[in-house]
Design brief:
This is Carrier domain-containing protein. With 108 residues, the protein is mainly alpha-helical. The protein is built from four helices and two strands, in the order E-E-H-H-H-H. A two-stranded antiparallel ribbon has the order 1-2.
């Protein structure tokens, strides 16, 4: 079996209050809160449902993401990006797209 390369780069995202967060760690802490500590030591590539993430906890997680980063998500997006690693990359991409759009709008 071929071993997959692991992305060790930091995924840093800025919250609406201007604070910078390493996204994987931030998401892991949010998951622990939403799952009442049941997700201690969240693995980067373990499906989040294996930690007991259900729709109620997902909505809480999405609320934290929206409040912190002004990124609105749909429930289906969580299942499309079902691991901490995949979700972090997706959110970083969405934030970058949002920031580029804001810069383009400001330049007009």
């Amino acid at each position: 079996m071929e071993e997959q390369a692991v992305d060790r780069s930091e995924l840093v995202i800025t919250s609406v209050d201007g604070e910078r967060h390493e996204l994987r760690g931030w998401l892991a802490r949010c998951l622990e809160r939403q799952l009442l500590g049941a997700a201690k030591g969240v693995g980067r590539n373990v499906p989040l449902v294996e930690y007991g993430l259900d729709s109620v906890a997902a909505l809480g997680l999405f609320g934290e993401i929206e409040e912190a980063f002004a990124l609105r998500l749909e429930l289906g997006e969580l299942f499309e990006h079902a691991t901490l690693e995949a979700l972090a990359h997706y959110l970083a991409g969405r934030a970058a797209d949002r920031d580029r759009a804001a810069l383009a709008e400001a330049a007009r």
